[in-house]
Amino acid sequence: MGLLAANLISSACCFVPLPPPSPLRFQAKRSSQRVLKAALTSSEKMDSGGQAAPVSKLMEFPHLTAAHTDLMLYLIQTVENGLGDHLLPSTVPTDVEYYENKNGTSQGTLLIRHGIPSSPIDFMIASWLHLKQPQGGAFNITNIAGYMKPSNDIPHFQFELVQCSPTFLIFFLDLLPRTDIILHPDYLTTYYEETGLEKLRQRLAALPEVSPYFSSSLYFRKVVSSTGILVGVKCEESESKRVEEIVREEIGPISKEVMRIWMELCLNGGRELEEDERSLMEKRDLMIKRKAIEMDLSKSMPLQFGEEVANRVLQVIRSAFKTA
Amino acid sequence: MGLLAANLISSACCFVPLPPPSPLRFQAKRSSQRVLKAALTSSEKMDSGGQAAPVSKLMEFPHLTAAHTDLMLYLIQTVENGLGDHLLPSTVPTDVEYYENKNGTSQGTLLIRHGIPSSPIDFMIASWLHLKQPQGGAFNITNIAGYMKPSNDIPHFQFELVQCSPTFLIFFLDLLPRTDIILHPDYLTTYYEETGLEKLRQRLAALPEVSPYFSSSLYFRKVVSSTGILVGVKCEESESKRVEEIVREEIGPISKEVMRIWMELCLNGGRELEEDERSLMEKRDLMIKRKAIEMDLSKSMPLQFGEEVANRVLQVIRSAFKTA
């Protein structure tokens, strides 16, 4: 569930003439598919030590463009290949893995996999949402995020791509800083300067169709890092192919590279924190997650999916976020 | 001396084809002028209790456009009228009040006035710089900043307007947050949401000539607030009148309103801090100032003005910033 998802979407509505909707996840259906089998290989292994866990659901992206789908599959596969050994199988209940509103026009999926005790990763969360808009059209939101444990200071990973219309995207890609940069400029050096993230931000910013996107939440503007990518991609009405080209040739390679950088940081394990640093980190992490849920998700989910479904989904997210 | 001045300028050089220069101040000349007399009235009073201190220097802006000059005079006058009673006379030595490079092509001015003991203001600093560029043309940088004491949490005021060419400006206007917003969202509510700063940012951002400006320093990107204005204003080569129009009709009114908001906060005195909060605030404030000097000013000043002049000016700034 994207940290900025609901907020991005509410804001997006001010941008394109559509009304406030809500969050997101991977589409999961009840049939099996080759790509998911591959993606679940190591969680099956972890689950039962030889005895395969049931392949529960399928990742499909029925509403996305080919470029967007390919990118999602690549990122999921990459997490699986690179960090699968770090992650336990998803324990999300079936009716939260996939959910929809009463008339089935809006759909959502959710996958959460916790890190094993020795991993620096607390959990990974992924989702897609298809949100039918009353005036026609739909928002398609896809998200992958990796949250770290408070025992290390590795930035959280955030990827979120929102197709608001065939010619307008919002894209958020960042490693979220976990400390007050003003007091800790060396954190900036280690995780942002030495990793070359700025080059990637600049590459995307140079495209004429791309412009900085300002979240409507002043709080989230401060959550984003110095090299965070938070942009709108807007093409002429006749140019939906150009949007797909930008996803395939720019957003895709940049996302893959940021994910690669983050995974490398995870595999190195990060810096071990002292007790007082750890408790501050925990407090800070919690504030960000709490803000995401209380300010955005808890308002937009019920509007989009009704109280009952929203409560069910939010309970699972709150439990993973430890904000319950 | 603008916090981001040197950095802005170094970055600006990547933007317009000009090489790395440095900082800024009010032009002060050795003759008297009506406008300065007015501006110095209350500092004269403070200085000697009845016996007027010598009117030392004059504020002129010989290199600026009329709109830019008018705005500077308005802002200085407004500080004088609204906060003059809070401020002691400037103690900047004459050869730092006004300085120039060997051949006199680059000039700078500096004015620093400390707050009286009962004021929440630590000091105000103002400056202009005229920096001749080797390839022709010049940068004109003007700056007014108000730094607060660590006994209160009122944001620092920052105004900086840089004319890089007749058709390109960089503009920085902000109330700098003095706490980690992630842990203290109520700080955001008090000083940024309730003051309506976002509306002002949006007003300027809506102009087609205006686009977000990314400082080359990843550190300073984190210093800026959520509603901070950091933009480039770029017009067609034939449109230098349009730049002046934007200064007069947009940048002017917005700057005046942000200054009014900040002065009101100062006059209310802000929240009194506990001892531990105060020491954290002091540490944070110091980091920002130190970064400004060590990363930027200490590199760019000697290049622009030579070692001797630069040392003289930097010593005065370091002493006010308490980073010496």
From TrEMBL, chains A, B:
GO terms for biological process: chlorophyll catabolic process. GO terms for cellular component: chloroplast. GO terms for molecular function: red chlorophyll catabolite reductase activity. Gene3D superfamilies: 3.40.1500.20. It comes from the Eukaryota. PANTHER family: RED CHLOROPHYLL CATABOLITE REDUCTASE (PTHR34685:SF3), RED CHLOROPHYLL CATABOLITE REDUCTASE, CHLOROPLASTIC (PTHR34685). This is Red chlorophyll catabolite reductase-like.
